[in-house]
Amino acid sequence: MSAKDEILSRIRTALADTPVTEEVPREYRTTSAMNEEQLIELLVDRLVDYKAGVEVIDAAQIPEFVAAKLKDASSVVYPQGLDSNWLSALDKDVEQRLDAPGARLSVAELDATSAVVTSSAVSVAESGTIILDGQPDQGRRAISLVPDHHVCIVPISTIVQLLPEAMPRLSITRPLTWISGPSATSDIELERVEGVHGPRTLDVLMVRGL
Amino acid sequence: MRIALFATCIVDAMYPETAKSTVKLLERLGHEVIFPKAQACCGQMHMNSGYMPEALPVVENHINAFDTDDYDVAVAPSGSCVASVKHQHPYLADRLGKPELKERAKAVGARTYELTQLLVDVLGITNAAEQLGSYFPETITYHPSCHGMRSLGLGDRQLDLLKTVGGITVNELPEADQCCGFGGTFSIKNADVSSAMLDDKVKNICSTGASACSGGDASCLMHIGGGLSRTGAKPKTLHLADILASTMEETVSL
Amino acid sequence: MTQVFLGMPAGGQGNLFESEPFPKAAHRELGNTQMRKNLRHATHTIRDKRLKVVGELPDWEALRDAGSVIKNNSMATLEERLLEFEKNFTARGGIVHWARDADEANQIVTDLVKATGSTEVVKVKSMATQEIGLNEHLETEGISAFETDLAELIVQLGHDKPSHILVPAIHKNRTEVRDIFLKEMPVVDPNLTDEPAKLAEAARAHLRKKFLAAKVAISGANFALADTGTLGVVESEGNGRMCLTLPETLITVMGIEKVLPQWEDIEVFMQLLPRSSTGERMNPYTSLWTGVTEDDGPQNVHIVLLDNGRTRALADRFGRTALNCIRCSACMNVCPVYERTGGHAYGSTYPGPIGAILSPLLTGIEVEENGSLPYASSLCGACYEACPVKINIPEILVHLRGEDVDAKREKHKLPTQMDLLMKGGSWALGKGKNIGLLEKALPLGRLAAGKDRKIKKLPGIAAGWTQSRDIPAPPSKSFRDWWSDEKESK
User: pTM for the complete prediction?
Assistant: First the structure.
């Protein structure tokens, strides 16, 4: 008997008393009454608590703010689908590196890149969570992981209050990365400190009119 | 109402005053109290020690004693024993393959109340001084016993009621929700851990400056009292039924 | 050795055993005052954090109810869920392996690693691989496994054992961690301070090259979603993302009970888990992957579905909800016993209240000293109250005590003191008139208590009580007798 058949047979034996299933009580909150300003306020509060940098800006200000966040960077990687205008105000000495299908940066190249700029798919205000789903404006997972500084654009139109509200907006079978602040650990005395293996600086630009 | 007193074995044998206090309180409110004499024990000690077949006669005896039409509700001055009647009796019957006993256990459990549960939820007592004439001019602290607080969901019922006793001062107990370490035969089988838990409870009680620690379970109070006594600490232990039953005319002394 | 029948649930192997009776292990651990201080500090910190973030959600109880039923349903339909997961994961390029027990899982992983030609693997913290002793097995096969989670790293560098499922080095304080780093890291700043941020930075520097060069990663999974074939890992440091993203080969080892029916179910568990475990609104990083994604992440993706006693636990109708555990560790963080003994006292990979039920359920109560674990609780119920999926741990503890006594009953020739006490108690407490008869002897107890009205020393097993507690002198008359005299005679 194969291991699979054996395990499945054991399961049938174990459940010989045929326990019944019941309908899942979903009495938890699935809709929010928050308006846009409340959503912004909540998400800002959560991200600041995680020690992320947060700015609330208009779409036209993106180039200026991206440039300001990257003023100390020597190089920045960006995914193919990112609006190229967003990087238009960068200092000339910040090297721009495109990561595109067929022209992938190696892990070593990413490690030698100081920052990354991506967009995001949906954000959950209540938990301060930004979700990347690998669409062309976010790129593959490695680019938002290896560089030590992540500048992330969050269109305000993509913010919801509750996690259940975010679910219909997710493409679950794409590789998903949920980000709630810069990398952190609670492994020493259960006190949270920021900055371990993932990007140690997370700057979030929350953008109106995108 | 006709109320059946489930005294519990420990109160019956070791703390009869607490059962008398329970009777007094209910009679003061104009209810009739009966004491089904076939009762003995809820069987918790056996079940919590894993002796299930040995627990069966004890549990059956309790169900036989209380599965009667002779009363409206049953009451016990113990959260732990009531939790056992409500939750453990049906489990034991289920485990030992006795579906009929399980149904009877559930019916008895549904009619059995912990004392403050009965006083507050059923009899509408919110002010002990006004409605029960309770008077106890001492500074106390209060330990919420785990089974009452968690298994029965008593919340702050006991503490809130104690605070309304005439003349009383209630000092908050630090880390009140931490178990005293009794746990029945846990205190014997895992005596070292149990003692370490008791140490902290005793220290916290002493830090309040209270002259007594009250609570709703005689077994936990016996454990705590045993620790206080061993360390020579000043505070005594007193069941909340005794405090509630204490009046201006007949004041309970420590 | 226990005989195993085909198709019959069998006990788990690996690191699931208590090797000495819990009270003995606890006695030793209680003597470690530094560890007790560390644990008290850490558990109290996390309790407050958890209460704060749980209190923020008005629908916490509704989430717990949903989580509990989703898990129950998943276990009740486990075969279908696993087959569904396998179909979907396979359809997206993943490869599914099945392992009956620890040995089989270790062998599968070893073969997969060897096939890549690599002799090094990076690891994301995983309870399943800890349970099966994968690192030790790989070492015997000439493969080095590098733990990348900070706490696992501390344990690995310190040649120590994990004592907590979330924070395996919870028994170490910052100074002890600093000392381990100074002693064991090949390249480390000799002026390293014990500031947690500096220690985290040292871990980053230590592991960076390993991450960037790794060809093979091994992970666990927090959940598998049956209807999409998706796997998820919940973490904080980014070491998980490194392992799940950069290597060419990813091997995940996951217990079969981790499967959830619908992908939307994560909306429940991703609210319950972070708040219950680290006391955060959300953990910094969660990664989800469904088989292989072209041009993004590992292109060789495997999962090993592990039984190792889970079907044995599933067969216990009173105990099977222990499989609902999402490994948040809230139960151990609130447990007064765990707080004082630490995790090592439980022997198994799974310590604390959940370990005290899970370990014997996975292995069988009669194996080694696992029968002593269900007694490692005062039944205070703090674990049940904190459990995000409402596992009634105290009820299962009591149930397993029953299993233990029944198992010992069959073996014992001579009754123990406890047996005699319980048998006598069964008679005495089984009838009102029996207890009434015994109560006639109460005045004798008063006599024994003497002038100061305390009993200070009892013989036999009851000596455990009098090691730190007196017993008050009994009353001269029981309530029962008072009632007869005062109430019935009138």
Answer: 0.96
